[in-house]
Amino acid sequence: MNPDPDYSAAYVVLHTDEGMEGHGFCFTIGRGNEVCVAAIEAYAPLVEGTDLDLGDLGGFARRLLHDSQLRWLGPEKGAVHMAAAAIINAAFDLAGKIAGKPVWRLLAEMTPEQIVDLADWRYLTDALTPDRALDLLREAVPGRAARTADLLERGYPAYTTTPGWLGYTDDKLGRLAREAVADGFTQIKLKVGADLDDDVRRLRLAREAVGPDVRIAVDANQRWDVAPAIEWMEALKPFDPYWIEEPTSPDDVLGHAAIRRGVSPVKVATGEHIANRVIVKQMLQAEALDVLQIDACRVAGVTENVAILLLAAAFGVPVCPHAGGVGLCEAVQHLSMFDYVAVSGSTENRVIEYVDHLHEHFEDPVRMSRGHYSAPAAPGMSTQMKAASLAAYAHPHGEVWRS
Amino acid sequence: MNPDPDYSAAYVVLHTDEGMEGHGFCFTIGRGNEVCVAAIEAYAPLVEGTDLDLGDLGGFARRLLHDSQLRWLGPEKGAVHMAAAAIINAAFDLAGKIAGKPVWRLLAEMTPEQIVDLADWRYLTDALTPDRALDLLREAVPGRAARTADLLERGYPAYTTTPGWLGYTDDKLGRLAREAVADGFTQIKLKVGADLDDDVRRLRLAREAVGPDVRIAVDANQRWDVAPAIEWMEALKPFDPYWIEEPTSPDDVLGHAAIRRGVSPVKVATGEHIANRVIVKQMLQAEALDVLQIDACRVAGVTENVAILLLAAAFGVPVCPHAGGVGLCEAVQHLSMFDYVAVSGSTENRVIEYVDHLHEHFEDPVRMSRGHYSAPAAPGMSTQMKAASLAAYAHPHGEVWRS
């Protein structure tokens, strides 16, 4: 489905009068990045020159998202929503830097009332009310300190997609799968959906490489309709796939629910392309998925993801963020760590995706240890790219583009 | 929800080597129009300089929509999808002009196979297969001639939103409602959702003005969550509202289904902000609405609307297009007329919205007669604006902007 990704990002820097900076971005795969840039520029008049109240970041996000003229281009989906994500995440990066805290900690040290106020509750109350969310958050308060200590000591579990890209030779797949296990990962992921015979061979090979105890997820990147998804997965079941990711359209709540019934006991995972919290709500209401894969930069950044984490906790569905892309590993780790400390209170069956590329461009790249993300300590959201990378890759005048 | 619309459009002209032109646009309400322009420009390399095969307009549309890098910004939603609508509708305007036919007739004279080939069937087959769609279309073939004659004689039924905007005085509301009935309309529509006491008073007044036999639809423009929608409508029931339009988020299939159960016998209508055919499919599967309101320029133009009309016919749900905006009346009439002649074969409980503004800017404006749209006779999709209007309103150098 994504044959020629040219990893790109529409990048935002917020500047304060005091010289502080907040960095955020949304991730694209090439052409169209300029559409997100245009959307960010359309929001600029709502941001530039305004007072940013760090105690009301929810209000800041709602002012952007409720702008009626820009909302018309969604509502709350597509380019304008990705643009809002870039700006809202930049505001949280800034808030973390001003507070001197990584964003996971900034969030996890808020009161339940402050956390609930970050979310936009419109369209959610038939599934979760602010009052019920407050109850959930209050129940988690007593355990925050112990979980923070545990997080700082152990990190947050990860899985790796490195072995599983389409187009790798069988030898390379087997070698990378064995390396992943040696590196401490307990789950890997393979792309599937191009050719069934190939998938059967690759999955057999991966299973042989990792043994029976390592989970192997498979990812179809939205390739199938409902019936083909169920048929294809039936052929892969002998190799015990753990979850099937994005079997069909990310908009198709009822389709995912039908697929989930059809592929059991294989789990269904989706979320990287879910447009907003309203689709997430329905995925949960319809029991359409076993694993929710949030994205840091497709829904409206930290604030909408707070609403989504609360929904997932209320429905008892584990969140395993989508990562990779440009800087998504850096961004999503803050969301999962906040979730562990202050929302769901658990890492059981929860893993953050890990892909080993582009980290060298970030000021505070993710740090992996024995298959876990180490908790970031630097202030901010880890979303700031190095000045040299920004200069070299800036389109169209950076040296990479000129050469 | 839309307090300050500044009616705008991102406008496309396709030129052939022979000097023919196809015109299309997507409608916005002001800021953000430039985001749609950027998205249209992002598609331009896929269009400019290519051969447009008028016998394969479905293939043309799929080439745009399946472009993996631009699809990433949706998929199939938001600014990139609105941009695709503008381009695809321009291609149909061009095809109609080359064929010397209005687009409703161009479509209605296609074979069932040609019509089915216009649609993108991905993600639809759990609800409707191309074979079943072919059956539907073939059943309609014998009646096409009689229905075309009927359409040319009577036109297509309409309803009017003119009396019902928020902010009108009670006197103006009553006067416009009476005028609408005198003009032959059998349905009017009122905006609701700002203030319940006001809505009760306005709906009582409108009911007194039009009498018991004229349908009064009400439109909440996405304002409510599920429970408030049901409560609000309970208070309006004494005045026999015909449908409640957009009670909540256009993404909320399950929410609409719950509201529909809660407000019966009032009907539920939605669609102007539905992102694509996948959401439409689910609305039908979940029995979430009684009336489907297609938009010409939010889903991907004629081709995706053909898929949606086929879905609606298969589920037996009447289509009543959203119109108004900029040129939507001009565009959607072709879709409803095609639906009547070649798809559903019925105008029962079907009405096209009519709003009496901006028609003066179009080369071939809609013509109303006794509450009906007269069938367009001019070649094309009626989407071409007058050259003088395009010049005067072009942003930022047109004379209207300069003054």
From TrEMBL, chains A, B:
Record-annotated Mandelate racemase/muconate lactonizing enzyme C-terminal domain positions: 170-266
Top-rank lineage group of the source organism: Bacteria
GO biological process: amino acid catabolic process; carbohydrate catabolic process
Sequence intervals crossing the membrane: none
The EC number(s) this enzyme carries: 4.2.1.68
Catalytic activity: L-fuconate = 2-dehydro-3-deoxy-L-fuconate + H2O
Enzyme class: lyase
Listed SMART domains: MR_MLE (SM00922)
SUPFAM superfamilies xrefs: Enolase C-terminal domain-like, Enolase N-terminal domain-like
Protein name per its UniProtKB record: L-fuconate dehydratase
Organism: Actinomadura rudentiformis
